[in-house]
UniProtKB/TrEMBL annotation:
Protein name: CCA tRNA nucleotidyltransferase
Cofactor: Mg(2+)
Keyword Oxidoreductase assigned: no
Coiled coil regions in record: 393-420
HD domain span: 271-410
Keyword Lipid biosynthesis: no
SUPFAM superfamilies reported for this sequence: Nucleotidyltransferase, Poly A polymerase C-terminal region-like
InterPro entries reported for this sequence: Bact_CCA-adding_enz_type3_sf, HD/PDEase_dom, HD_domain, HDIG_dom, NT_sf, PolA_pol_head_dom, PolyA_RNA-bd, tRNA_adenylyltransferase
Record keywords, A-Z: Coiled coil, Magnesium, Metal-binding, Nucleotide-binding, Nucleotidyltransferase, Transferase, tRNA processing
Classification lineage: Bacteria, Bacillati, Actinomycetota, Actinomycetes, Mycobacteriales
PANTHER family noted in UniProt: CCA TRNA NUCLEOTIDYLTRANSFERASE 1, MITOCHONDRIAL
Top-level division of the source organism's lineage: Bacteria
Length: 484
């Protein structure tokens, strides 16, 4: 258990750390400005938690966290007339939010908390010291504070040492911390992903013991942490922590469920390891920053394999239609985690489509197949390109190069057809009004069937002339007995 060191001066910093704090104040003069307002009113104000950690890591963002001995009503009084905007959605927990010059500031009254350990919601009472406030933080690296405008450093739990060692420890006993708030176990995995930190052995052991406590946390909060983990700099190490400690069994059971399911395309790896590799390779292909949909699709593209695993005559393992089963499983899991409908459908569709390329073999892509590939993918096509390329994890260099050339050829075919046709908006050559006029139909299901038939013809044969489209429609209507 970590306890505050009362013998060490709280403000003693190395030269590098002093420079880091000075740089923090340089890029965020707003901190000193608001600090002077509080000091003039006889109150303390500290930059605290993740803001201090990120400043020392050189990754400070636009959101700044502060704590103070002033109560929320006094905070509102001090920021009114200074802040450009104020919000009070968290005021029942002692937090006032303000914005100033593009920065978002959250100012929270010193707090102490007690938990019933039945839910995650604490009983909050206001504290009197910054040390008491820091004692309730999740990890020691988040339990540091810098006073403003004085710039004195407070670090009662050796967060600086942990920061230097890239280590995660809790301020108190890990079991107490995680029983108070089980979400902190997921936050540990998130910080591993985002910051590359390593949890201390006692933290890992505690998560293993208490993994089932995460069931107390709402699906929405679990989703928020999983998203931050997946969007981190190295989500694979965070995901491994979830699986190794048993947390994944509670929040994303399909992930550990892929272990030991042999992938017929790479028999030296199980599907779990293959999926983590695909995730890494998909991240390498990102062009405009982290892409949640692509990362989730890469991680989950093969979750249907355990349910479809079959041993064929001769001993070969098959996973027929695992993309169909996998898409259904993705929808079920992401809905349970309260992901948006848009994200859920995008990830599921990518999982459904990720094998389409392999179904055509080498050099067998007809114009019709290319049109359908583009039409089925729609706006997901750029992500599908990345997912398919990432799904090659073979150690056979020649095979990998051949697959890459084959996909290069497909993309070239798409480019050529795009130059000739509007592939991104494939529609029938006759619209609904023209169909009704030609066949003498009223609006209804038959018009939709005719429209779908003409679209299928368009996908198979490319653009038709008006006369050919009318002839095709008449032939179809005759076969359907329409107009007899």
């Amino acid at each position: 258990m970590s306890t505050p060191d009362q013998t060490r001066p709280d403000h003693r910093l190395t030269r590098a750390q002093q420079l880091a704090v000075t740089e923090l104040m340089r890029v965020s003069p707003i901190a000193d400005e608001i600090g002077r307002r509080f000091t003039a009113a006889g109150h303390q104000l500290y930059l605290v938690g993740g803001s201090v950690r990120d400043a020392l890591l050189g990754r400070l963002g636009h959101d700044l966290d502060f704590c103070t001995d002033a109560n929320p009503e006094k905070v509102l009084e001090l920021v009114t007339g200074w802040a450009e905007a104020i919000w009070t959605t968290g005021i029942e927990f002692g937090t006032v939010g303000v914005s100033k010059h593009g920065l978002q500031l959250e100012i929270t009254t010193f707090r102490t908390e007690s938990y019933d350990r039945q839910s995650r919601n604490p009983q909050v009472t206001y504290g009197t010291t910054v040390q008491g406030d820091l004692s309730r933080r999740d990890f020691a690296v988040n339990a540091m504070a810098v006073s403003v405008p004085q710039h004195e450093f407070t670090d009662p739990y050796d967060g600086l040492a942990d920061l230097a060692a890239r280590r995660l420890r809790t301020p108190g006993a890990p079991d107490d911390s995680f029983l108070d708030d089980p979400l902190r176990m997921l936050r540990a995995a998130r910080f591993v992903s985002q910051l590359g930190f390593e949890p201390a052995p006692e933290v890992v052991a505690s998560i293993e013991r208490l993994a089932s406590e995460i069931d107390r946390i709402t699906a929405e909060r679990v989703r928020e942490e999983l998203v931050k983990l997946v969007m981190g700099a190295d989500p694979v190490i965070g995901l491994r922590l979830l699986v190794d400690t048993g947390l994944a069994e509670r929040v994303l059971p399909e992930l550990p469920g892929m272990r030991m399911e042999i992938d017929e395309h790479a028999q030296h790896k199980d599907v779990y390891e293959h999926s983590l590799t695909v995730l890494k390779q998909a991240i390498d292909l990102e062009e405009d920053g982290p892409d949640l949909v692509l990362r989730l699709a890469a991680l989950l593209h093969d979750i249907g394999k355990p349910a479809t695993r079959r041993t064929e005559p001769g001993g070969k393992v098959s996973f027929h239609h695992h993309e169909v089963v996998g898409a259904k499983m993705v929808r079920k899991r992401l809905r349970a985690l309260r992901f948006s409908k848009e994200t859920t459908e995008q990830v599921a569709n990518l999982v459904f489509l990720h094998l389409r390329f392999h179904g055509f073999g080498r050099g067998e892509w007809t114009d019709s197949a290319v049109r359908r590939y583009v039409t089925d993918a729609q706006d997901l096509l750029p992500r599908l390109h990345k997912l398919v390329r990432s799904d090659c994890t073979t150690r056979n260099r020649r095979k990998a190069e051949r697959l890459a050339r084959d996909y290069d050829a497909l993309e070239e075919r798409i480019t050529v057809l795009r130059a000739q046709e509007d592939l991104d908006r494939v529609r029938p050559d006759l619209d609904g009004n023209a169909i009704m006029a030609l066949l003498g139909l009223q609006p209804g299901p038959l018009v939709g069937k005719a429209w779908k038939h003409l679209k299928d013809v368009r996908l198979d044969r490319g653009p038709l002339s008006h006369e050919d489209a009318e002839a095709e429609l008449r032939q179809w209507a005759a076969e359907q007995g329409i107009g007899e």
